[in-house]
Amino acid sequence: MAEDPIKDILHYAQALKAPRIRDAAARLAEQAREASWSHEEYLAAVLSREVAAREASGAATRIRSAGFPTRKSLEDFNFDHQPALNRDMIAHLGTGVFLAKARNVVNHPRFRAASMVGCSSGLRAA
After folding, report:
1. C-alpha neighbours within 13 Å on the C-beta side of residue 97
2. The whole model's pTM is what?
3. Which of 19, 36, 117, 126 has its CA 20 to 30 A from that of 45?
4. Contact 74, 120 (CB under 8 A)
5. d(Cα 11, Cα 20) in Å, to the nearest integer?
6. Summary mean pLDDT of the chain
7. Contact 122/106 with Cβ under 8 angstroms?
8. What letters, b where the CB count within 10 A reaches 16 and e where it falls short, cover 25-57?
């Protein structure tokens, strides 16, 4: 161990390719000292920053990889253009429950907003 533990943390974060640890370590160390955090609380806070950033980055990567033609959400859908659509069914599909059941809803005979629900469900699932 070096005399400066923060230098060690920065080195280890770089070796682990964990830039959010590098970015948060010193700032959170100061906050931990002021609030008398335990070592475990400090470590959990630093690691949580890295995990949150990786999850967000992973979601962005999955969205890019999906190749959606545009970013759409059900909140943006104009039901006035498709008055025959069942709003409750669309709202239910928007929850993504069908994803856990691995059910195909895009080819449903009563379904007319395939692109909108498909894109918005994919974005939520990412």
Report:
1. 6
2. 0.56
3. 126
4. yes
5. 13
6. 81
7. no
8. beebbeebeeeebeeeebeebbeebbeebeeee
How far is 25 from 7, CA to CA, in rounded Å? 10
For the chain, give percent helix, strand, coil, nearest 5: 70, 0, 30
Query: Which amino acid, one-letter code, is at 53?
Result: A
Task: Please give the helix or strand (H or E) that residue 67 lies within, else none.
Answer: none
- Tokens 């906050």, residue located: 31
- Spatial separation of the C-alpha atoms in residues 73 and 80, rounded to whole Å: 16
Rg (alpha carbons) of the chain, rounded to whole number: 22
Q: Specify the residue for token string 């692109």.
A: 115
Tokens of 72: 């759409």
Confidence tier at 29 by pLDDT (50, 70, 90): very high
